[in-house]
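Figure caption, in words: inputs first, then the predicted bound structure.
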Amino acid sequence: MAIKVYLSTAGRPLDPGEATISVFDRGFLYGDSVYETLRTIGGRFVEMGRHLDRLRRSADGIGLEIPFSDPEITAATRATCDATGNADSYVRIVVTRGIGELVLDPRHAGAPLLVVIAKEIHVPPPEVYARGLAVRIVDVRKISRRSLDPTLKTGNYLNSIQALRQATEGAAEDAIMLSIDGAVAEGATSNVFMVKEGRLLTPSLKTGLLSGITRAVVLELAAELGIPSAEATIMPDELRAADEVFLTSSVRGPIAVTTLDGAPVGDGGVGPITRRLSARYDAYLAGIAAGAGRSGAE
Ligand SMILES: Cc1ncc(COP(=O)(O)O)c(C=O)c1O
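Bound structure (pyridoxal-5'-phosphate present):
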């Protein structure tokens, strides 16, 4: 499997073994970084423009000034993907606050570091999409918006790691986290949707969650299909009583949740609205691969 890593300090894609960074990098020391995960389809980036916008919003939110322009980041990402030779890539774009003295104060940081990792994309096999996931609503709550704004995609992912650990200690494959107030927030690395009586619902951003790019795309596709949708406060019992539940993320797209806290969701199969939206999402990706859709800045 080909993996290539671009480092702004090297200015070119490297083999993983050559791509080393300082132990004094604040991304390593404190998770003092922002990042994006996206994919390519047919060699084209999926929603690069929206990912770069979110990267900058995240950086603004932690007072990190990114000294690389969007075309520079896009060119580095393109070069890294091309260097892998993979037909399609999983892509991670990271900007850290760089190397500093061993003190917390970010004013002591040097120049930000851009890292791009491209590797072969692995999505779950078709049988997993066909059967859906077993998911647990975990005890680990989403960090309060007042502590660390969850709309910022920072390198500090221990909250999600703890949630995933708890879910996978048992039979579950993925975790859903509640907000501090007990409302359904999001998955460990995904957004949550539910269907009740033909209506699509997703937790509102006010709940405190990442404004997922796939979440936004799925809401747009639902509107195109005439499926009514709303952003709402969803309590765990409402989610458990849903007809359908699915998760969304840039890597997996929409993926059904058919078991929640050990009980079947609806009739326990992938529901009709999840199927329709998944098919529409596949067509949206095919459109990007064909050069017709929203690949974003190339
Ligand atoms: C916490 C969290 N929520 C939601 C998502 C889904 O966001 P997107 O659709 O932009 O990939 C992710 C993706 O990594 C995430 O980490």
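Residues 181 and 207 are 9 Å apart (CA to CA).
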